[in-house]
Backbone:
């Protein structure tokens, strides 16, 4: 159980499995709520702690919360009787956030492996082979969590390589929210494409949408790009239309929390507006996401549950009230972009262009 | 010089001329930087104080800064030698903010009256008639500033009456920034239309865009609508597209800082995005502004100077730093909406529908 899951050069790991001198493992997360002012970490030693970190956005981003939840199931299997503990953990973790499908996907992968190992039933074959005679169910679960984490980074690098081919030399790229290193186990999805273009010498520059209300762009994407040395400029979300009208945006690239079977994309609130603006200005609008984000069980965007979060995210910032007392707010965390507005989806398998409606 | 310019019921005056017991006049402004947390006032006794209040957004909104600058010219005429003082004040005040044409318009109106009274030259006729034998140039200037203030409220009420006819019963109206009481001498332009519809029993409800970076929607429009008792819900700017897609917006109405001769509209950054979204969803997009906002000398939106403001407005929110140190930001304060995206312009003279390109 000593291995750590991944290290991304240049940036501390978004999440990693750590083991102390007494052999006790824990999930260590960058506390993203405290960035960019402070680089601090949260150690989650219990299922409840992992669930809390996901719910309160200490860790966020669809692939990252998937991997975190996978480790959470492993903690459940370790602490609470193997299969029963894994199942109880899965139920708690699945309920933390409703929109990102990677969360359920990762939980189910670990749970299936534990069930398979526990019952000797037909799983995906890997758990059974490696479990063998003596290794505990907790070890099976942890091994699967490690695999999910490693696979995520590999998928992001592959996505970056595919996506970079779509990026012209010197492209001025607009991105929204954080679909970067911090949204994944490492490297990033949308920001991964930008990184790959940068590493390929294409000299992109980035417009970073601040991304109200939780400011993932201003706090997280800006921080990442600074650390990576990629030139970036922060703007309020309201400036995107003006930048496109003045000819200062060559392409838009965002991540995804869930992609329906018909190609509709749920992503951070404000994404849909960018897609409409991009179409109006004839600018390519790309979505970069691992195939685990594609949910065959969701027919269209209309079937995606969009999380509504606390009004206080809108009426307050860092404890400072910005609206008058008693003001009511709405706070949809995501919106849905129809497939027809998406120029292409970039996954680890390649680039697919949805049919236009 | 004792008269105050206007009182709007339900809300304290955005600006008013006050005279103390020794006969000294001053321009008293609501300090809009401190709303909604505190209702405080600034007393401007000098031209420099008025210029500072405009530049630092203690008073903002195209009609309000026009009226404030008119009083500033009157202070210049009073304190610094009549015509020479008025001209010096005009030069200082004209340079405070570049985009709103009402500012130059109001300054020129007062200055022309003072010049006319000083030289006996042909003005617009009113200054000469009322100046007569003995009244000083300062009094002429102040009388014109009072007229500009009173005309603004009358124009807004007329605009409200015209615009309310466009508002269906129970309309869910999205507005951006603050084009209300606080943006004018009283009643408001875009919010004036909402008020008139409310007073006519049409039971509108309002989506208030928070309007980053300076949060005029969250701080000012929310405060006004609360005081007026008009049901309103605050949203982050990024939610507008989602609200339109879910069928929750019946019309959009905004103010304007300058309307070019061809009907292109400069207004708060983010307005253009709303116009593109409204067109995409087939939702009416209205602009409410007094005719003093229409600038015949500006042929098209491309000729409008768009103010760029301090990066700190983007990198900080309510005094809290939200971006990493050293992060570069851009901060265009306005954008330009082409006339073709504007369903109709509502002025004090009526409703005009620009030709579609």
Residues:
């Amino acid at each position: 159980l000593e291995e750590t899951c991944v290290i991304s050069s240049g940036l501390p790991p978004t999440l990693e499995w750590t083991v102390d001198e007494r052999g006790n493992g824990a999930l260590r997360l960058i506390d993203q709520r405290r960035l960019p002012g402070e680089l601090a970490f949260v150690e989650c030693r219990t299922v409840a702690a992992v669930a809390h970190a996901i719910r309160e956005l200490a860790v966020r981003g669809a692939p990252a919360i998937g991997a975190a939840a996978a480790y959470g199931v492993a903690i459940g299997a370790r602490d609470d009787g193997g299969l029963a503990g894994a199942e109880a953990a899965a139920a708690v973790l699945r309920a933390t956030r409703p929109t990102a499908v990677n969360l359920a996907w990762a939980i189910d992968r670990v749970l299936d492996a534990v069930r398979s190992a526990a019952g000797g039933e037909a799983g995906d074959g890997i758990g059974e082979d490696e479990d063998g005679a003596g290794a505990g169910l907790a070890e099976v679960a942890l091994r699967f969590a490690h695999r999910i984490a490693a696979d995520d980074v590999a998928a992001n690098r592959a996505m970056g390589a595919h996506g970079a081919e779509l990026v012209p030399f010197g492209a001025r790229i607009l991105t929204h929210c954080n679909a970067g290193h911090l949204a994944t186990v490492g490297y990033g999805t949308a920001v991964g494409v930008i990184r790959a273009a940068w590493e390929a010498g294409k000299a992109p520059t980035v417009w970073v949408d601040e991304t109200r209300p939780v400011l993932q762009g201003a706090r997280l994407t800006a921080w990442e790009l600074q650390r990576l040395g990629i030139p970036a400029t922060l703007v309020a979300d309201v400036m995107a239309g003006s930048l496109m009208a003045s000819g200062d945006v060559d392409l838009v690239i965002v991540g995804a929390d869930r992609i329906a079977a018909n190609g509709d994309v749920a992503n951070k609130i404000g994404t849909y507006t960018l897609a409409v603006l991009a179409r109006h200005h004839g600018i390519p609008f790309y979505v970069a996401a691992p195939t685990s984000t594609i949910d065959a069980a969701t027919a269209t965007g209309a079937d995606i549950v969009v999380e509504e979060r606390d009004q206080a995210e809108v009426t307050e910032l860092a404890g400072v009230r910005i609206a008058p007392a008693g003001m009511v707010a709405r706070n949809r965390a995501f919106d849905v972009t129809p497939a027809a507005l998406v120029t292409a989806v970039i996954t680890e398998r390649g680039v697919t262009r949805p049919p236009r409606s």
In short: Chain B touches chain A through 53 residues (CB under 8 Å). The mean pLDDT of chain B is 91. The first helix of chain B runs from residue 47 to 55.
